[in-house]
Specification:
- The complex is a heterodimer of chains A (350) and B (198).
- Helix content of chain A is 65%, strand content 0%.
- With 350 residues, chain A is mostly helical.
- Chain B has 4 helices and 5 strands, in the order αβαββαββα.
- The longest helix of chain B is centred in the C-terminal third of the chain and has 45 residues.
- Chain B has a 3-stranded antiparallel beta sheet. Chain B has a two-stranded antiparallel sheet with strand order 1-4.
- The termini of chain B are far apart.
- Chain B is α+β, with helices and mostly antiparallel strands.
- Classes of the chains: A mainly alpha (350), B alpha+beta (198).
- Chains A and B meet through helix 2 of A and helix 1 of B.
């Protein structure tokens, strides 16, 4: 209650809950437009091109034009698909990524639902995406969609294990699964962030390698979780046309698209919350009021969204066997070791 | 086991090298030319020697010989001429050459033209040649038919009338000659028969 400004302002009634639900939805739509523009611009700048320049000043309203184009397109449902599954899959996917916004704290005064199992909840609902992708892939009655769906399910389930271990390590370090508690423990400047072992005496730096490894594992896993390059084999254009969304068009394709971008933000927000202090200002109490906290949180999260886009235009796609090698033979043992290290630090911590 | 760790460090290291390279390219100078706003230097006399562009016909030089029309593999050139009459006082070009054919119509359909250059090679007076113009998109196919003839409708009518007058005159002269000949033959035949009678 005290962590939600809307409930304090408008009281505990249905309208304030509607507002609380609407704020992340509006945010996702605006953010998706920004991220699409960022994707287009970063892609072209990396390739020494200019990118969209004709729609508006320097092409800034290009994403709006693209959304309008997608809305105008004919919504084709192929003849031999399983219609109920085919039509629900994009919405299952979007619901899965949007539900995660329920526990993302934009500021100390605004978190839609202050669950005491926040991290666990995010992890549970983000598994919804696997169901959506499998539904879409299977019901499309198309071998490319089917292969894409199966690949995606294999990839997501595999990468969830090292990700779960890094979340577990953060839970052990913070002694909590609540988002706000995890963030509040990281107050007092950037040297108290979990990436530097949380608040504690100087010898916390001895455990710096473990936190760095956990951060890398979580970040790499999140790339796989959102089907982004270098782990975009579920939709590898050069191999299986477009993977699970081969048969989708118009608004349903746009839902998949939105879900991917929303997922990108969710995992970036989680990286920020777990390792980089969430809405905490990097300079202690300086500029750390509830309004500036939103700015800090968005800055940090958008930086990781940028890193994801940046990586997409840097690295080539990994092979399927390399994908499985990376998660089972590299990330998993390292995650175990890092988890043990962090658990030791959590025990020793005064 | 040694390979295992070196592979991991090489993987992370090369990914970081790649990220450094792409980051540098984020801020490097872009190579895109914003086409309708800025042109390629090809416009300013840097055209390749054998560039194939839009044709142009200099009507001051054209003598209406129709070699280009006959050479054209796709029949995109359409020429119509009127013979110049003998004593036409206007029948001189600016260069002083005598006009033997008035080019009433010289149309090139660039929707058909395949830029083979066969017309320009055979032209005896180098009247047809390729320009540096290569962009002439139109909304309607008919707008791609370029008319090069400089003659107005009045001039065409006047020249046609002159030619018809001359033809009529010639025909009259020929008819007169034929009539005279016939009369002479008749007279000759009469005298012959008279002689035969007498």
């Amino acid at each position: 209650m005290e962590s939600n400004i809307i409930l304090q302002l408008f009281g505990d009634n249905i309208w304030s809950y509607l507002i609380i639900v609407a704020i992340p939805l509006v945010f996702v739509i605006i953010y998706a437009l920004v991220a699409i523009l960022g994707e287009l611009k970063v892609a072209s700048w990396v390739q020494d091109r200019l990118g969209p320049m004709r729609t508006g000043w320097k092409g800034v309203i290009q994403p709006i034009a693209e959304v309008v184009k997608l809305l105008q397109k004919e919504d084709i449902t192929p003849k031999n698909v399983n219609k109920p599954l085919f039509n629900t899959a994009p919405f299952v996917m979007f619901v899965g990524s949007f539900a995660a916004f329920a526990v993302i704290p934009f500021s100390s005064k605004f978190i839609p639902a202050d669950l005491n199992v926040g991290l666990f909840y995010v992890f549970a609902v983000s598994s919804f995406a696997v169901i959506g992708i499998l539904m879409g892939g299977w019901s499309s009655n198309n071998k490319y969609s089917m292969l894409g769906g199966i690949r995606s399910a294999a990839q997501m389930i595999s990468y969830e294990i090292p990700m779960a271990l890094s979340i577990l390590a953060i839970a052990a370090l913070s002694q909590s699964l609540n988002m706000n508690t995890i963030i509040e423990l990281q107050n007092g400047g950037f040297w108290n962030w979990n990436i530097f072992g949380g608040s504690g005496p100087w010898y916390k730096l001895l455990f710096l390698p473990f936190t760095l490894i956990l951060f890398l594992i979580y970040f790499i896993g999140s790339l796989a979780e959102t089907n982004r390059t270098p782990f975009d084999i579920p939709e590898g254009e050069s191999e299986i046309v477009a993977g699970y969304h081969t048969e989708y068009s118009g608004m349903k394709f746009a839902m998949f698209f939105f879900a991917e971008y929303a997922n990108m933000f969710v995992v970036s927000a989680l990286v920020t919350i777990m390792f980089f202090g969430g809405w905490q200002s990097p300079f202690g109490d300086f500029l750390n009021d509830p309004i500036m906290q939103i700015v800090w949180f968005l800055l940090k999260s958008m930086f990781f969204v940028f890193v994801q886009i940046w990586l997409r235009w840097t690295l080539p796609r990994v092979r399927v066997d390399q994908l499985m090698y990376i998660t089972w033979k590299v990330m998993l043992p390292f995650a175990f070791i890092a988890f043990l290290g962090i658990a030791t630090w959590a025990m020793l911590k005064p | 086991m040694g390979n295992y760790f070196s592979n991991i460090s090489a993987g992370i290291g090369t990914a970081l090298v790649g990220m450094r390279i792409t980051f540098e390219h984020l801020f490097s100078k872009k190579v895109t030319r914003q086409y309708p706003d800025t042109f390629h230097p090809i416009r300013d006399g840097h055209m390749p020697k054998f560039a194939r562009n839009r044709l142009y016909v200099d009507m001051e030089l054209c003598i209406g010989c129709m070699i280009c029309q006959r050479n054209c593999p796709v029949n995109c050139i359409d020429i119509k001429t009127i013979k110049a009459v003998k004593g036409d006082p206007e029948a001189f070009k600016k260069s002083g050459d005598k006009v033997t054919l008035w080019v009433e119509k010289f149309d090139i359909d660039f929707a058909k033209c395949m830029f083979c250059n066969l017309c320009t090679e055979e032209c005896p007076t180098d009247a047809i040649y390729m320009t540096q113009e290569f962009e002439y998109t139109k909304y309607n196919r008919n707008e791609l038919i370029y008319s090069f003839s400089v003659m107005t409708d009045d001039q065409i009518a006047a020249k046609t009338k002159l030619l018809e007058d001359e033809k009529a005159e010639k025909a009259a002269v020929a008819a007169k000659a034929a009539a005279e000949k016939a009369a002479a033959e008749k007279a000759a035949a009469e005298t012959e028969s008279g002689e035969a009678k007498s």
